[in-house]
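Example 9 (inverse folding). The structure is encoded as follows.
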């Protein structure tokens, strides 16, 4: 605040001439018109945006998976008779196969869904024409399934409440032993999330026992389990920084970073919620999702959604919120929308096009690094960040 706006702008001009970073993180993108919020029939448990189409599949606590279509922002933009954005439309429902909590994921070509839950079974459904069950693997686990992932073209990976990790080849039929690729029992508590690299060599699993397990999917072989943490349950894992880093989230509000290939000990532990005002007391980290190679979204146990940069570790903006809690969220096919579901039974859409197209570079000068963050905050939400200069 000690310098005038003209002086600040001149510094950014000089920075642009030297390494052209401003043009990358602060383009001329405008805020887009997003689909309106949509009221769900039941409490959501998990959701996934299909990789090829503007569709989101939502699993609820009654064991029903709904497929909902929405309009892409500014692309297939449709309005009603009075000019408002057209509401999302519920297209299909997958049959009720379990009587309790569901988890859902999509194949890479968006033609199939995999669903699972407390019934210990796995259901593969076809979405190409109509919702049609293709394959059911009964008694896939000995206890309730707590996480699943469609890992490659032919294999789905599941984890259960006792820490077991299994992979199944859907080409091998419905028998749980014949179709099973591998099983590992290294974790002591529920598996909460899966991730992997683009080559599909490493399978990474986050567990409620506060550790991460790494598996060589090709061999297959268990590589190692990371050290336990005292920062709570490990709830999320994703690959970042051009696949050179693995990022995990712990319920105590810490983000841990690992080098790819060196999964035993984290290289950094970031207490991200310390950057927020302490007016609401302690916050718990619920879920995380990568927005781009250096920016990720985080939900806390109060229903808020935040955007953070990884390097440097900075809060960028508040994306939005749900009442009570945010149950799940995912990036859509355009990478311009964040789709979230909350305990308030609302499906909401958030414009993150400014964030997904931004590049934040860690400068030698801390002041210049801070200027990047502040300028991105103003561009993302100018009204909410009116007092950003006072930080």
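The amino acid assigned to each position is listed next.
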């Amino acid at each position: 605040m000690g310098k005038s706006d003209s002086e600040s702008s001149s510094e950014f001009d000089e920075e642009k001439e030297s390494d052209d970073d401003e043009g990358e993180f602060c383009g001329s993108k405008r805020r887009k018109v997003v689909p309106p919020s949509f009221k769900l029939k039941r409490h959501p448990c998990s959701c996934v945006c299909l990789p090829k189409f503007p569709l989101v599949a939502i699993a609820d606590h009654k064991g029903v998976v709904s497929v909902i279509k929405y309009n892409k922002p500014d692309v297939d933009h449709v309005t009603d008779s009075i000019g408002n954005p057209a509401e999302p439309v519920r297209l299909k429902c997958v049959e009720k196969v379990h009587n309790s909590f569901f988890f859902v994921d999509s194949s890479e070509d968006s033609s199939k869904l995999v669903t699972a839950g407390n019934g210990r079974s796995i259901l593969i459904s076809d979405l190409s024409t109509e919702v049609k069950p293709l394959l059911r693997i009964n008694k896939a686990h000995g206890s309730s399934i707590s996480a699943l992932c469609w890992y490659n073209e032919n294999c789905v990976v599941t984890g259960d409440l006792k820490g077991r990790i299994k992979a199944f080849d859907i080409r091998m039929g419905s028998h749980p032993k014949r179709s099973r690729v591998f099983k590992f029992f290294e974790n002591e508590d529920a598996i909460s999330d899966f991730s992997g690299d683009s080559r599909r060599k490493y399978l990474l699993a986050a567990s409620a026992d506060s550790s991460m397990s790494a598996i060589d999917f090709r061999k297959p072989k268990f590589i190692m389990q990371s050290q336990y943490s005292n920062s709570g349950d490990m709830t999320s894992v994703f690959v970042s920084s051009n696949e050179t880093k693995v990022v995990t989230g712990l319920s105590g509000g810490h983000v841990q970073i690992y080098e790819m290939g060196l999964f035993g000990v984290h290289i950094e532990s970031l207490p991200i919620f310390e950057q927020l005002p302490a007016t609401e007391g302690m916050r718990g980290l619920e879920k995380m999702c990568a927005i781009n190679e250096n920016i990720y979204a985080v939900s806390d146990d109060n229903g808020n959604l935040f955007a953070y940069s990884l390097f440097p570790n900075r809060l960028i903006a508040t994306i939005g919120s749900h009442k009570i809690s945010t149950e799940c969220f995912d990036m859509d096919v355009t990478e311009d929308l964040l789709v979230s579901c909350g305990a308030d039974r609302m499906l909401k859409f958030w414009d993150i096009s400014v964030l997904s197209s931004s590049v934040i570079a860690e400068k030698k000068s801390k002041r210049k690094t801070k200027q990047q963050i502040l300028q991105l905050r103003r561009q993302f939400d100018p009204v909410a960040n009116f007092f950003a200069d006072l930080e």
